[in-house]
Amino acid sequence: MRRMELNNRKDRKQGQTLIFALMVLVIITIVALWNFDLHKILNVKSKARNGGDAAALAGARWQGITLNTVGQINVMQAVALTEALSRGETDFSQIEAMGDLGARVSFTGPMVGVAAAQQFAKNNGIYNNEAFANTLRRHADEIRDHYHQSFAAPFPSLSGSPDFWTDYARMYDTLADQGVAVEIENPRWFGGAIGGGHMLLNPAFYDAIASADWCWFHFNASDLLSSYHTWRDWPALPYINQPEPLNAELLNCGIDRIEILDQLSQPQLDGLFPVLDQLAQPFLQSDDGGLGGNQSQGAITGNGEPPTEVDREIIDIEITWYTYSGSRWGQWTDLVDEAFPWEGNVKAQYNYAGADAAIRIESGYDRMSPVGGADSVLWTSAAKPFGFLEGLDGPERPDAFRMILPAFHETRMIPIDASSAPAGGSQPGWSEFVYEILPRYMEVGPHSLPRSNWYVQQLLTWENASFRAGGRNWIQFNSDNCYTPPSPGGGGGGGGGGGSRRGH
To answer: Most C-beta atoms within 10 A of its C-beta, which of 15, 245, 299, 419?
Structure first.
């Protein structure tokens, strides 16, 4: 009997040892799998960062190339006009063709940049995202169906297509067919944030609804969550001007145009001509008839003296000149909130907004494949072309004289919250919504509108009283979690959980 008890105790100890060994084995397995999964996640995030940064830099580089090319066209026009005037010519048809070329470059240059951004991302291991490609396809359909009714073509088609918009839609189809790895975060769909202070004309309003961005409402429209009851509460829409398309909608460069230079201010002209003369020197005719080298006498002033400046007669000649859009090229430091953690001061010659490239990548943890949801990596990156002009008093901002001149020398990464990405309106269908759907909405309400339009979907969500009540409750208990108030009309400020919605 005693021996049997000893054997039972021994068996119990062996059983306990086995259970303990199994527990240790399970823990070791969990730790090994966790380390494997962690390594995989870190690897995916590293690839997303490298691919995103490379894509943003490629897009910004092409923005700089586009602006420099348009600037060179402006300089060549000035030289050609000056020489034509010195010879007493009055036919400027060849110079007008240069202006037409500038319009084409302002569209095609950024679109090449979008293609370059895709390729650089793919070179860094980023897979195509079919959802991103479908966004471009939907926008191509919108261009074909609506743009020719709303917007004048910026230049004639060269492909034999019925109009330019058919060619423009094909650009988007081609991008989609070649595979889209990154999405441009700061598009400027024609129609834009056309304001007048009306909430329905603010694209950021719809972005905030889609992401339940209660911090945006807290900073921009907190009263609206309480006061709104039905679509009949909206004030009347203001008169909506149809813009003149002059830029690609993706990687938009903020290009405008004028017909005669006397639309520039006198201080702008006084500073412009010496700089323009300096930039014109490589394009002046040499003694042997070629470009560059020693300038032929009278090539600029036409008076037999060595040329010293561009002839100011060109001010009053109706030729297309490309300029920086005044509404876009403000101070870069004004683009973000005062609390943004700038390190040091931005030098005056670099303190300009106007053109930047912001992109987004969505990838799965298992590989660089887009899956979305909780098991995914979101990476956003932004980059910006930089440069300056050598003015009489030292370095000047590229837009110091308003006319676009070749001034961009390098491209740098910038924080996503210091880019134009938070401006809202990241979905296609905006122009159709503004010009065709909104007037109908103001008459009959949201329920008879086309559900395929993304902005209509957000209006339907907004009409849901429980959605607005959820926002009010969240703000009541969580508004302290909101930070970095967005600039007016911007879309920053935080997602449904508060804080910045630009986290990686």
So the answer is: 419
Dist CA 70 CA 108 (whole Å): 12
User: Residues 68, 407: contact at Cβ < 8 Å?
Assistant: yes
Concatenate the DSSP letters of all residues of 211-236 into one string.
Answer: TT-HHHHHHH-HHHHHH--SGGGSPP
Contacting residues for 77 by C-beta, under 8 A, at least 6 apart: 95, 98, 99, 319, 321
Backbone angles phi, psi at 124, to 5 degrees: -100, 20
**Domain count for the chain:** 1
pLDDT tens profile 77-89: 998 888 888 888 8
Predicted confidence band at 485 (pLDDT cuts at 50, 70, 90)?
A: very low
| Residue 504 belongs to some domain of the structure | no
Is the pLDDT score of 35 beyond 70?
no
Contact 294, 286 (CB under 8 A): yes
Domain holding 117, by residue range, is 37-190+246-428
Ramachandran sector of residue 191 (left: φ over 0; alpha: ψ -120 to 50; beta: rest): left
At residue 174's C-alpha, the angle toward residues 171 and 180, to 5°, is 110
414 domain residue, yes or no: yes
| Residue, of 272 and 365, whose pLDDT is higher | 272
DSSP-derived letter for residue 361 is: E
